[in-house]
Design goal:
Elements: E1 5-9, H1 18-29, E2 36-41, H2 46-52, E3 57-60, H3 77-82, E4 87-90, H4 99-108, E5 114-119, H5 122-129, E6 135-138, H6 150-153, H7 155-168, E7 173-177, H8 183-191, E8 196-199, H9 201-204, H10 209-217
Parallel strand pairs: 1-2, 1-8, 2-3, 3-4, 4-5, 5-6, 6-7, 7-8
Helix pairs in contact: 5-7, 8-10
The structure holds SN-glycerol-3-phosphate.
Amino acid sequence: MGEKLVVVNFKTYEEAHGLSAENLARIMNDLETSARIVAVVSAFDLSPVVNVAPNIEVWTQHLDPIQFGSNTGFLHPDTAIERGATGTLINHAEHKVSIEHIAMLLDQVPENFTVCACAADIEEAKALTALKPTYVAVEPPELIGGDISVTTADPNIVSGTADAVREISADVGILCGAGVKNGYDVSMALDLGTSGVLLASGVTKSSNPLESLNDLISKI
Ligand code: G3P
């Protein structure tokens, strides 16, 4: 888990959907960095973003562990993979699912498909780590979308999650998010024992996304 990640969740921000998603992904695609840059997009935007941003990873925001057949409105992992997704978030604070949902999804996807399971706190991070996702991302819900990075507001939850995850499994990576905005926040996240950050508004709501992204990767 030596690689560093900057994962940008496009959510359903107006500035990061449809054509705007493609434009933001193009900017991310051209960044010069050793970090893994990931765009987490709406299922609708998956194919177009994959097509315009071949240098970055594109993940989906959610998947359902369903089989082919009668499942109207659900998101089948194989469809996401066929359309170019290399990973997914699951159990985001804004889209919680059951532990069984996550376990079944992990059983269903191929081993090289990245699954980043989100946790609200250290206890949830421990429970998720036992399922062996690729990453566990700790994001205190009350700090999501705010101006203070979790690394400043609550560094102990980040280092505590890193320690707890490592105690259970050396194979599960750790990310943190909520309020992350700049390179300083990213370097704090790395110092606190993570492999990188999961963020949204710091990029999607930025008046200059290129500048914000360059700042975010500046200390990696
Ligand atoms: O998925 C990332 C997200 O929940 C954090 O959002 O806006 O606080 O960076 P934000």
